[in-house]
Amino acid sequence: MLEEIAERLYVWREPVLDVNATVVVGDTAALVIDTLSSPAQATRLASAVRETTTAPLQLVNTHFHFDHWYGNEVFAADHIWAHRRWDITAQPVAAAISDYGHAGAGFADELAGVEPIPPTDAVPTERTLDLGGREVTLAYLGRGHTDHDLVALIPDAHVAVCGDLLEQGAPPSFGDAWPLEWPATLAALGSRLSGSWQLIPGHGAVVDLSFLHRQHSELAALEWLCREGYGDDRSPAELAARSPFNADHSLVAIRRAYAALDGRLP
Q1: Which positions fall inside the Metallo-beta-lactamase domain (predicted)?
Q2: Distance (Å, whole) CA 182 – CA 63
Q3: Structure confidence at residue 92 (pLDDT)
Q4: Element (H, E) at 265
Q5: pTM
Q6: Residue of 67, 120, 212, 252 with fewest CB within 10 Å of its CB?
Protein backbone atom coordinates (compact mmCIF):
# COMPACT_ATOMS: atom_id res chain seq x y z
CA MET A 1 0.00 0.00 0.00
CA LEU A 2 1.00 3.63 -0.41
CA GLU A 3 2.21 5.34 2.75
CA GLU A 4 2.04 9.13 2.84
CA ILE A 5 5.32 10.36 4.37
CA ALA A 6 4.83 14.03 3.47
CA GLU A 7 1.98 16.04 1.99
CA ARG A 8 0.95 14.35 -1.30
CA LEU A 9 4.14 12.28 -1.32
CA TYR A 10 3.86 8.52 -0.96
CA VAL A 11 6.08 5.44 -0.74
CA TRP A 12 5.18 1.92 -1.86
CA ARG A 13 7.41 -0.70 -0.24
CA GLU A 14 7.16 -3.91 -2.25
CA PRO A 15 7.88 -7.07 -0.21
CA VAL A 16 9.60 -8.92 -3.07
CA LEU A 17 13.20 -7.65 -2.98
CA ASP A 18 12.05 -4.94 -0.51
CA VAL A 19 12.14 -2.36 -3.30
CA ASN A 20 10.59 1.11 -3.10
CA ALA A 21 8.51 3.18 -5.49
CA THR A 22 7.69 6.83 -4.79
CA VAL A 23 4.70 8.88 -5.90
CA VAL A 24 4.85 12.69 -5.94
CA VAL A 25 1.57 14.49 -6.62
CA GLY A 26 1.29 18.05 -7.86
CA ASP A 27 -1.69 20.16 -8.93
CA THR A 28 -1.45 19.29 -12.63
CA ALA A 29 0.73 16.15 -12.84
CA ALA A 30 2.10 13.31 -10.76
CA LEU A 31 5.43 11.54 -10.84
CA VAL A 32 6.10 7.84 -10.17
CA ILE A 33 9.75 7.24 -9.34
CA ASP A 34 10.68 3.62 -10.10
CA THR A 35 7.98 1.18 -11.17
CA LEU A 36 8.96 -2.02 -9.34
CA SER A 37 10.02 -5.39 -10.72
CA SER A 38 7.13 -6.72 -12.80
CA PRO A 39 3.83 -5.76 -14.44
CA ALA A 40 1.93 -7.57 -11.68
CA GLN A 41 3.60 -5.47 -8.99
CA ALA A 42 3.19 -2.30 -11.04
CA THR A 43 -0.51 -3.00 -11.61
CA ARG A 44 -1.10 -2.99 -7.86
CA LEU A 45 0.95 0.18 -7.55
CA ALA A 46 -0.90 1.88 -10.42
CA SER A 47 -4.27 1.03 -8.87
CA ALA A 48 -3.21 2.66 -5.60
CA VAL A 49 -1.88 5.69 -7.47
CA ARG A 50 -5.19 6.16 -9.26
CA GLU A 51 -7.02 6.07 -5.92
CA THR A 52 -4.80 8.99 -4.91
CA THR A 53 -4.75 11.15 -8.05
CA THR A 54 -6.24 11.36 -11.53
CA ALA A 55 -3.47 13.68 -12.77
CA PRO A 56 -1.41 12.75 -15.83
CA LEU A 57 1.61 10.63 -14.90
CA GLN A 58 5.29 10.89 -15.66
CA LEU A 59 7.85 8.24 -14.66
CA VAL A 60 11.44 8.28 -13.48
CA ASN A 61 13.75 5.25 -13.58
CA THR A 62 16.61 5.89 -11.17
CA HIS A 63 18.86 3.29 -12.87
CA PHE A 64 18.74 0.29 -15.21
CA HIS A 65 18.40 -2.60 -12.73
CA PHE A 66 15.21 -4.47 -13.55
CA ASP A 67 13.55 -4.08 -10.14
CA HIS A 68 13.26 -0.32 -10.75
CA TRP A 69 11.68 -0.26 -14.21
CA TYR A 70 10.10 -3.54 -15.34
CA GLY A 71 6.73 -2.08 -14.36
CA ASN A 72 6.98 0.77 -16.89
CA GLU A 73 4.59 -0.87 -19.35
CA VAL A 74 1.67 -0.63 -16.93
CA PHE A 75 1.67 3.18 -16.81
CA ALA A 76 0.40 5.28 -19.69
CA ALA A 77 3.15 7.87 -19.32
CA ASP A 78 4.19 10.33 -22.02
CA HIS A 79 7.55 10.90 -20.32
CA ILE A 80 9.87 8.36 -18.72
CA TRP A 81 12.96 10.12 -17.38
CA ALA A 82 16.37 8.54 -16.83
CA HIS A 83 20.03 9.51 -17.03
CA ARG A 84 21.48 9.58 -20.54
CA ARG A 85 23.77 6.59 -19.82
CA TRP A 86 20.80 4.35 -19.00
CA ASP A 87 21.16 1.14 -21.09
CA ILE A 88 18.23 -1.18 -21.81
CA THR A 89 20.58 -4.00 -22.85
CA ALA A 90 22.43 -4.10 -19.53
CA GLN A 91 20.07 -6.48 -17.70
CA PRO A 92 17.80 -8.44 -20.07
CA VAL A 93 14.72 -10.33 -18.87
CA ALA A 94 16.43 -13.72 -19.09
CA ALA A 95 19.19 -12.56 -16.75
CA ALA A 96 16.68 -11.17 -14.26
CA ILE A 97 14.82 -14.49 -14.23
CA SER A 98 18.05 -16.45 -13.79
CA ASP A 99 19.33 -14.27 -10.96
CA TYR A 100 16.13 -13.35 -9.14
CA GLY A 101 13.29 -15.59 -10.32
CA HIS A 102 13.42 -17.46 -7.02
CA ALA A 103 12.74 -14.29 -4.96
CA GLY A 104 9.01 -14.95 -4.57
CA ALA A 105 6.29 -17.43 -5.44
CA GLY A 106 5.43 -17.07 -9.12
CA PHE A 107 7.97 -14.27 -9.54
CA ALA A 108 9.81 -15.97 -12.41
CA ASP A 109 6.52 -16.22 -14.32
CA GLU A 110 5.82 -12.54 -13.66
CA LEU A 111 9.22 -11.63 -15.10
CA ALA A 112 8.71 -13.85 -18.13
CA GLY A 113 5.73 -11.72 -19.13
CA VAL A 114 7.61 -8.40 -19.08
CA GLU A 115 7.47 -6.14 -22.12
CA PRO A 116 10.46 -3.87 -21.48
CA ILE A 117 9.53 -0.21 -22.02
CA PRO A 118 12.67 1.94 -21.80
CA PRO A 119 12.91 5.61 -20.83
CA THR A 120 11.90 8.21 -23.39
CA ASP A 121 13.65 11.33 -22.03
CA ALA A 122 17.30 11.73 -21.03
CA VAL A 123 18.62 13.80 -18.13
CA PRO A 124 22.24 14.78 -18.88
CA THR A 125 23.01 16.23 -15.45
CA GLU A 126 19.97 17.98 -13.97
CA ARG A 127 16.36 18.66 -14.88
CA THR A 128 13.56 20.26 -12.86
CA LEU A 129 10.02 19.04 -13.50
CA ASP A 130 7.02 21.27 -12.73
CA LEU A 131 4.10 19.17 -11.47
CA GLY A 132 1.95 22.23 -10.82
CA GLY A 133 2.66 23.99 -7.55
CA ARG A 134 5.47 21.52 -6.83
CA GLU A 135 8.88 21.05 -8.41
CA VAL A 136 11.00 17.91 -8.51
CA THR A 137 14.67 18.16 -9.44
CA LEU A 138 16.26 15.12 -11.07
CA ALA A 139 20.02 15.20 -10.58
CA TYR A 140 23.00 13.11 -11.57
CA LEU A 141 25.67 13.63 -8.91
CA GLY A 142 28.32 11.13 -10.00
CA ARG A 143 29.00 7.43 -10.27
CA GLY A 144 28.10 5.16 -7.38
CA HIS A 145 25.80 2.14 -7.45
CA THR A 146 25.99 2.45 -11.26
CA ASP A 147 27.42 5.01 -13.65
CA HIS A 148 24.04 6.71 -14.11
CA ASP A 149 22.18 6.94 -10.78
CA LEU A 150 19.55 9.67 -10.65
CA VAL A 151 18.26 11.19 -7.43
CA ALA A 152 15.00 13.13 -7.13
CA LEU A 153 14.83 16.10 -4.79
CA ILE A 154 11.45 17.43 -3.62
CA PRO A 155 12.44 20.58 -1.69
CA ASP A 156 8.99 21.64 -0.47
CA ALA A 157 8.58 18.26 1.26
CA HIS A 158 12.23 17.89 2.32
CA VAL A 159 12.33 14.45 0.68
CA ALA A 160 15.07 12.95 -1.48
CA VAL A 161 14.52 9.79 -3.51
CA CYS A 162 17.94 8.17 -3.72
CA GLY A 163 17.52 4.96 -5.71
CA ASP A 164 20.17 2.40 -4.85
CA LEU A 165 22.75 5.02 -3.94
CA LEU A 166 21.32 4.24 -0.50
CA GLU A 167 20.13 0.85 0.75
CA GLN A 168 18.62 0.13 4.14
CA GLY A 169 18.47 -3.37 5.60
CA ALA A 170 21.11 -4.88 3.31
CA PRO A 171 24.65 -4.00 2.23
CA PRO A 172 25.09 -1.81 -0.85
CA SER A 173 25.06 -3.76 -4.11
CA PHE A 174 28.38 -3.53 -5.93
CA GLY A 175 27.86 -5.59 -9.11
CA ASP A 176 27.84 -2.53 -11.40
CA ALA A 177 29.27 -0.10 -8.87
CA TRP A 178 32.11 2.40 -8.76
CA PRO A 179 33.39 1.92 -5.19
CA LEU A 180 36.13 4.55 -5.51
CA GLU A 181 33.63 7.24 -6.54
CA TRP A 182 30.51 6.30 -4.58
CA PRO A 183 31.55 8.17 -1.39
CA ALA A 184 32.02 11.43 -3.30
CA THR A 185 28.61 11.03 -4.91
CA LEU A 186 26.94 10.58 -1.52
CA ALA A 187 28.88 13.59 -0.22
CA ALA A 188 27.53 15.63 -3.15
CA LEU A 189 24.01 14.55 -2.26
CA GLY A 190 24.51 15.41 1.40
CA SER A 191 25.81 18.85 0.48
CA ARG A 192 22.45 19.68 -1.13
CA LEU A 193 20.44 18.76 1.95
CA SER A 194 20.27 20.76 5.16
CA GLY A 195 17.95 20.54 8.10
CA SER A 196 15.55 17.64 8.45
CA TRP A 197 15.14 15.52 5.31
CA GLN A 198 13.58 12.13 4.70
CA LEU A 199 15.59 9.93 2.33
CA ILE A 200 13.92 7.13 0.38
CA PRO A 201 16.45 4.38 -0.39
CA GLY A 202 16.11 2.00 -3.30
CA HIS A 203 15.38 -0.79 -0.85
CA GLY A 204 14.25 -0.79 2.77
CA ALA A 205 12.80 1.72 5.20
CA VAL A 206 12.80 5.50 4.81
CA VAL A 207 15.88 6.96 6.54
CA ASP A 208 17.31 10.33 7.58
CA LEU A 209 20.52 12.27 7.02
CA SER A 210 22.32 10.43 9.81
CA PHE A 211 21.88 7.21 7.84
CA LEU A 212 23.37 8.85 4.74
CA HIS A 213 26.35 10.02 6.78
CA ARG A 214 26.89 6.51 8.20
CA GLN A 215 26.71 4.84 4.80
CA HIS A 216 29.03 7.49 3.38
CA SER A 217 31.56 6.78 6.15
CA GLU A 218 31.40 3.03 5.49
CA LEU A 219 31.83 3.48 1.75
CA ALA A 220 34.68 5.94 2.30
CA ALA A 221 36.41 3.42 4.56
CA LEU A 222 36.02 0.79 1.82
CA GLU A 223 37.35 3.20 -0.80
CA TRP A 224 40.56 3.85 1.16
CA LEU A 225 40.93 0.18 2.03
CA CYS A 226 40.92 -0.52 -1.72
CA ARG A 227 43.31 2.29 -2.59
CA GLU A 228 45.82 1.35 0.12
CA GLY A 229 45.48 -2.37 -0.55
CA TYR A 230 46.07 -1.84 -4.24
CA GLY A 231 49.15 0.25 -3.50
CA ASP A 232 50.47 -2.45 -1.15
CA ASP A 233 49.70 -5.21 -3.69
CA ARG A 234 47.34 -7.00 -1.30
CA SER A 235 44.81 -9.53 -2.57
CA PRO A 236 41.09 -8.68 -2.64
CA ALA A 237 40.39 -11.63 -0.34
CA GLU A 238 42.81 -10.27 2.25
CA LEU A 239 41.13 -6.88 2.21
CA ALA A 240 37.57 -8.25 2.31
CA ALA A 241 38.04 -9.44 5.88
CA ARG A 242 38.73 -5.84 6.94
CA SER A 243 35.81 -4.24 5.09
CA PRO A 244 32.90 -2.48 6.83
CA PHE A 245 30.62 -4.80 4.81
CA ASN A 246 30.42 -8.59 4.69
CA ALA A 247 33.19 -10.40 2.86
CA ASP A 248 31.16 -11.65 -0.12
CA HIS A 249 29.79 -8.19 -0.94
CA SER A 250 33.17 -6.62 -0.31
CA LEU A 251 35.01 -8.95 -2.70
CA VAL A 252 32.83 -7.74 -5.56
CA ALA A 253 33.54 -4.11 -4.63
CA ILE A 254 37.28 -4.60 -4.18
CA ARG A 255 37.67 -6.42 -7.49
CA ARG A 256 35.83 -3.62 -9.28
CA ALA A 257 37.95 -1.01 -7.49
CA TYR A 258 41.13 -2.82 -8.55
CA ALA A 259 39.85 -3.01 -12.12
CA ALA A 260 39.24 0.75 -12.06
CA LEU A 261 42.72 1.39 -10.69
CA ASP A 262 44.18 -0.86 -13.39
CA GLY A 263 42.27 1.05 -16.07
CA ARG A 264 40.17 -1.99 -16.97
CA LEU A 265 36.88 -0.19 -16.34
CA PRO A 266 35.91 2.54 -18.82
Answers
A1: 18-203
A2: 15
A3: 84
A4: none
A5: 0.96
A6: 120
